[in-house]
Here is the input.
Amino acid sequence: MSEILSKSKASLRWRLGPLWSLASLLMLVYLVTLANSFMGESLQVQLQFALVNLIIVVALQMFIGTTGVLSFGHIAFVAVGAWTVGLLTIEPDLKRSLLSDMFPFLFDVQAPWLVAVFIGGLVGGLLALIVSPFLMRLNGLQAGIATFALLGVVTQVLTYWSSIGPRSGQSMVGIPDVLNLQTTMFFALGAIVIAWLFQRTRPARLLRAAREDGIAAAASGINVVSQRIIAFTISGIVAGVAGGLFALTNRVLQAQQLGIELTFITLAMLVLGGMLSLSGAVIGALVFSVIDVGLVQLQAGVDIGSFVVSIPQGVRPIILGLILVGFLIFRPSGLTGGREIVWPFRSQRQALPGVPPENE
Amino acid sequence: MAVPTHEIGLQVENLCVSYQGVPAVRGVDLEVKAGEAIGLIGPNGAGKSSTLLGIMGATARTGTVRINGIDVAGLPPEKVVRQGVALVPEGRHIFSELSVLNNLKLGLVGRREKTGIPEAFAEVFTLFPILEEFQGRKAGLLSGGQQQQLAIARSLMANPDIILLDEPSLGLSPTAVDTVFEALDVVRKAGKAVLIVEQRAEFTIAFSDKTFVLHDGLITLTLGPSDANNVDVLTEAYFG
Amino acid sequence: MNQFIQSLVDAISGGAILGLAALSIGLVFGVIRLANFAQGEIITAAAYTLIFTWQLGWFISIPLSIVVAVALSLLMEFTVFSRMRTATPATLLIASFGLSFLLQRVYEMLFTNTVQTAPVGSALAQSIDVGGVRIQMLSVVTIILAGSLLYGLTLFLAKSSLGLQLQAAAADFQTARLIGISASRVIGLSFALSGVLAAAVAFVSTVQTGAVGPSFGVPIVILALVGAVIGGIDKLSGALAGGFLVGFATSMLASWLPQDFSNFRDAYVFGLVILVLLFRPSGLLIRGRGVART
Here is the structure.
């Protein structure tokens, strides 16, 4: 067969293609950050949020894209990661006065911010691991509802349980200003590398196979549930880290910020880029953020010659909503069509093994 | 709604159906006239069911399908039904949560004329007395053979000129199969065009006025009733 | 004892409301496999209509709210969901989630973020004395309203030709089309009925709170959706019973849990949901594992 004849060429392509897609994604994020650092301060802050969102979207893709199972629950891991970092980095005296209802031992627990971020990731992963035996058997609609319920539980506990945070209606304040744009970018690059490595592991390959044909996978002895637990936990860790970075970027925490709205925005990013590929997650997050920044500028008013063009307050989220719904209707496979960025010097389209070109 | 008798029937020309680029039916021609029963046999995956679904417009197709002389290109199944064709689907697909009577009433949805409804009930109850007896019962509680009778009765409620049956004998006991085919004989003699897709080759060949053998989406052989006991021909049809 | 009867009546009415809301979701799901998150925004639209037109008189305001709910429901179908017929239930859920977000922002722009108020149905906001027990008039009205809507719907589904067609399409969409049932007609019908139920839910909720904001319908629809899924969204009776159960349970928890715990009542309900889904993924009332019809 001709496949065998061109095996050596093909194997080179197998090795270089994925590496190329990783390198190009890393370059893309780097260049966007570089370009942005020449711009104004407010844009830099927005980019920092965009990079945090990018990490969340990468975490989402690691699970949803690999397993084909819907999750509305990842923001719960983001939330506990953020909470952890908040609790570990706010000064003890401040905690005593502002968060007086908390368990006493929490007043003195402190960690350097970098350590705190990693602990946040571990807490996110731990939560994912604990709930995964309950969630990972479910598919489709049931999975969507159950993960949504998880988000509901976590949001409510963080809102009302003053033993681990502020009283309801108040915020956690006093998170130190330590994180800069460049460090956030390194975290984003790290998340992309981890997701890329994860894609090449055995669990991820098995899950992609099971996603395409669940019955065949079960028949060939793949324990889908245990593989899904691995994917869920790892993506929970990444989401938890993103939560920690969110805490350090926003520096004020309220459970409501880490709820339905953030779930919507990150899912929209993933849908925009294409759920089935890592490139989709990264490109979706970046493109969505660029559009968002553009809309914010427009809202404030942009000078074009002698005119000031502006859009009314409130139009921005409507346009973002239209993008999500429009893509689901007209191009459900997203901007990337579920493909990775391809080696540009060959004409064949090349998908990852097990990843079909289109999300049907 | 009177259709000239000479035009009643089904004409299929060069019908092709494919699923995601994989062809299932590759250019089938066939014709079924009023008062005629045509059989369509062939091994699993030969494209028999796809042919029926293609005729009904329930799957994307190319080629021409004429029902009572009218080209039904581009019509969705619910409109195709109203041209005077009814399908009794494989696996019966009766509405098991609804009563027998309600299943029959649903058959009326595809009926072209709004007259003669009491007569239609009377006719199917004569054809299948068991349905009259069990009319208040949940359809899901009927036996397989009774469900098949119900599925055929439901399609007759629409008073179609053409009736398509997808494996009506599937999973039925020999007596139940006899009941079904006796009823189909009555239907044929009443002047309807009958197209039967079957796996049971001998039975179908003996019953039908003409039987086509479908292989890999193509008609490879045409058989008459006298071929029913010709083992060579049958072997050729399935393995050739 | 009196207090218990009061809370029981309130819980039944709470269950009735969520039962109706879950049923409105189940009606559409049965036909096109869409669990419509944006049902909440239909409720919100009907509620806004009540608030803004109440001074014209209830006999204008209530019919108008029904018209608005049905119109919005049909509009969603024609503009969004009718273009997604081949999508999986999970994708449809994401789309409706996005639509929900989108409509909330539209309401925010049109009516601001602050709540709009009007004394809608203030005549119902009183207690009546039944054998020495004080009972909320609104709870009684809610139970009667839900009961009669259910009776009417059941009658319609069982007796009318269109109702039978809807049941047939919900049971087996492909076969329904093959026997001549018009897809667009039954889908339109399910969205319209679902809009009527949403308007009823909106009426009761608006009388209860008297204030409507952009995300008015969100908590209702979340609990209703959850109820529909744990009851068994594949069957109307399952969706109804599940919605009732969730409404009843949240109301009882709110009445009887101490304040410190009742803040977490949704968390308990959600936790319960995860457990139910683990053991009965197709819903409490559905035998076997029949739901995986994707």
